[in-house]
Amino acid sequence: LFNVLEVHAPFGCFKATKIQIKNHKYLRQTHYLTKILAIVFNLPLLKTNTMNHNIPTMNDIKAAHELIKPFIHNTPVLSSQLLNEILGCQLQMKCENFQRAGAFKYRGATHATLRLSGKEKTNGVATHSSGNHAGALAKAAQINGVTSYIVMPKDAPKTKIEAVKYYGGEITFCEPTLEARESTLVQIVRETGATVIHPYDNF
């Protein structure tokens, strides 16, 4: 996705920050990540050559948390003495593998589903994903009584497919290419009127 050449932070285990993007497809995700790193590590926000996009504010984040709080697990933050000794700092790990649907993506999927209008809920939600987002959206939709249409590549892991089925997602399989996933999703939305919940770009 990108090379982290140096990481600047105000504590010992990181010394400088510079991110080199390797794949232009991920430019927008990296743009978000750069801003998050700047906030977390209290760094100056450098100008980038990316387009201007809406970026969530701290108030947006707090409001989203209040909205989804009744539907999510308060997952633990754990530490490892061994890793701390190796890195020379206190490493905290947010264990979202204990989250509902087994991934942090359930938080975003739940937030997006809860914000749907009544008509949008009636028409359902749709996405393409080979794994965590597929299961997360299917689970969030199930809890909120919404139909979910999930496009998955034929070679998606069996465990991920079974999870989507268990959560009530209606799966449509496609060829394992981004083009096939997106075109299949467009067709499903055209037929159902479902609202697309993008795997990562949904603010």
Strand order of the largest sheet: 7-6-5-8
From the helix content, strand content and strand pairing, which structural class follows?
A: alpha/beta
- Share of residues in helices: 40-55%
- Main sheet attributes: strand count, strand direction, barrel closure: 4 strands, parallel
Strand share of the residues? Answer: 15-25%
Which value, in Å, is the CA radius of gyration? 19 Å
The strand count comes to 8
Shape: globular
Give the low-confidence spans. Answer: 1-28, 46-52
Number of helices: 8
Q: What is the straight-line distance between the termini?
A: 21 Å
What are the secondary-structure elements, in order, as H or E? EEHHEHEHHEHEHEHE
Q: Kindly state the mean pLDDT as a whole number?
A: 82
